[in-house]
Amino acid sequence: MDKKHVGFIGLGLMGRPMSTNLAKAGYPLTVFDKLAEKMAPLRELGAQAAGSAMEVAEKSEVVISMLNDAPAIDRALSGPQGLLAGAHPGLVWVDMSTVGPDQSREFADRAAAAGIQKLEAPVFGSTGNAEAGTLGLMVGGDQAAFEANRDVLGVLGKHLFYLGPNGTGATAKLACNLMVAAQVFSMAEAMVLAAKGGIPLAQMGEIIAASGFVSALITRKIPNMVSGDYSPAFSVKNVHKDLELMVHTAHQQGAALPMAALMHQMYCAAMAGGMADQDFAAIFRVVGGLAGLNGGR
Fold this sequence. Notes:
Elements: E1 6-9, H1 15-24, E2 29-32, H2 40-44, E3 48-49, H3 53-59, E4 62-65, H4 70-77, E5 92-95, H5 101-113, E6 117-120, E7 123-124, H6 127-132, E8 135-140, H7 143-148, H8 150-156, E9 157-164, H9 168-196, H10 201-210, H11 216-227, H12 236-253, H13 258-272, H14 283-290
Parallel strand pairs: 1-2, 1-4, 2-3, 4-5, 5-6, 8-9
Antiparallel strand pairs: 7-8
Helix pairs in contact: 9-11, 9-12, 9-14, 10-11, 12-13, 13-14
């Protein structure tokens, strides 16, 4: 049986390794990114480089998008060169971006009006998981469409969770990212407390790494805070955006999320401090600055 023709829009930190895995798995692949140079490595693997999202849709049976935020998705959908303009019978669009549940439902309605079936499949896991094909996918949308595309999704993720209609996957993703942000924020406070008490950051990092409460996430972020190297795996601006979505969604649902609201304000400070493109572990610089540590250290 021939493999589906797959399109991929957005070749950033996560999209590049994900699309690479699809190419290596033998799926006929068409890719598009607004930065043409990002398509070159995929062309070397046999993928076609498209000139627009419309062209990706026209050449594909299933299109996957991995974009930064709702405005980026809107740009990919809209206009004479947008994904919606390339609609054809049977096209399935799988959006793996992190957006709010209300935004996801709105995009699903727009896709349906153009005859496109939309699934949402935001992910949990790092760039390393994306490279290994071991991400977790939290899927919302039509269950039959999900089952029909398990083969494609299974190349990208090890853990596939079907949750219900569009919006459910987006909600689960925000819940996961709340825990991600909280772990790193609490570690930043712990490291500041240690530093103020005269304990070297490297030694405190060793203590945390050897403890029973360390997580894989914390293990990856200890070196950032010890060395001061905040090369981004998950940027401040993306965590700031996600926290804003959490607070907004909680307000809509009548839920109180006081920790999320506080972290959102702290990441607002990180944004104002010019840290937008640094790894989100740079929140240590903000917390350290409040404690009078020079440069957060």
